[in-house]
Amino acid sequence: MKRGWCVWVTGLPGSGKSVVSEALVRRLNEKGVHAQLLSSDVLRKILTPKPSYSLEERDVFYSTLVYFARLLAENGVNVVIDATGNLRRYREAAREQIAYFFEVYLECPLDVCVRREAERSKTRGAPRQIYVKAKEGKTNTVPGVGQPYEPPLEPEVRVDAERSTPAGAAEKILQKLLGKSALR
Question: Which stretches of 6-107 are assigned E, i.e. beta strand?
């Protein structure tokens, strides 16, 4: 059986991970390639229904997310992960455990992410008003504000998420995937 591959779309909250990941899955389907979307916001509601976002909870959550992605890929299922994964070690664990791994970094300035998060009507499962709560001192768990966000050092794909559309970002990722043997 052919192994699946995994694409992890990372970036600050509000950088567009969910919409880009959904657009990528749609484009893959159009090309006849099935991929399973693993949304951290949706999965978190199952694994940690009342999340604290503590370091210990994040460690468990991301190791579980990587475990699921690895199992799926080992069983021939292609995976797109939509998750901040604020610490590099979370994404590096996936790289170490999954044979065909691609990291995608949606590079977006914090002020743009804050504005997008405030303006969006659809959260796709993400908690609402996280930057507002951080600014008001109600939380210190937001990556990029109260917690570190460690951008990838050498992602396979880097997208200017401030200027790129979700469709444009998905196409850039797809073209990189098409150039790799994992999709052939």
Answer: 6-10, 35-39, 78-82, 101-107
- Going from N- to C-terminal start, the domains of the chain cover 6-183
Q: Which residue has the tokens 């507002």?
A: 132
Over its length of 184 residues, how does the chain's per-residue pLDDT go in tens digits?
789 999 999 999 999 999 999 999 999 999 999 999 999 999 999 999 888 899 999 999 999 999 999 999 999 999 999 999 999 999 999 999 999 999 999 999 999 999 988 877 666 656 777 888 888 888 888 898 989 999 999 999 999 999 999 999 999 999 998 887 555 4
Query: pTM to 2 decimals?
Result: 0.93
Is 6-183 assigned to CATH 3.30.1330.10?
no
What the block records as the tokens of 118 is 């405030």
